[in-house]
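User: Can you predict the 3D structure for this chain?
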Amino acid sequence: MKKQFLLLFLFVTISNYGQMAVTDVTANETLATQLTTSTNQLAQLEKSYQVLKEAEEKYQKINSIVTSVYKIGEIIELQREAIENINIVRNNKKSADNPNLLENMNHILLSINQRVNTISNVLKEGFFNMSDKERIDMFKSERSAIFFQVSKTRGYANTYRIRN
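Assistant: Here is the predicted structure, written as structure tokens:
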């Protein structure tokens, strides 16, 4: 009997340390709810990210268009200045004595008008078909050519301004 008590005592003390797994139903429900909420928040965050990414792309496109518009405005101002300079030369009595000068002014104005027409055609037909780099490069090259022609008209106009 002593042996049996000893075995029983040993068995009870050993089995006392082993615990049964306990599951808490409310903890599992709470965890499942939190996982669902987290998944929904993640999906919403991904949607917000996509919206912000699309908005940023649209902003970049609009920004490049606005930059192009400013470049177009600058080209218009250059053309206006060239016309004013040519009018100064044309209205001067001394320039009437030099037919080559008036013919040269006519060629300059024709060149500027052709470049402005090129820009105008691009704006009407191919503005959105061009990449930003192509559009900016085209505006830069046309602007520099127009600027060169306007510089010539400035020189002629300044000559006649000084003489008056």
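Residues 69-163 form one domain. The two ends are 139 Å apart (CA to CA).
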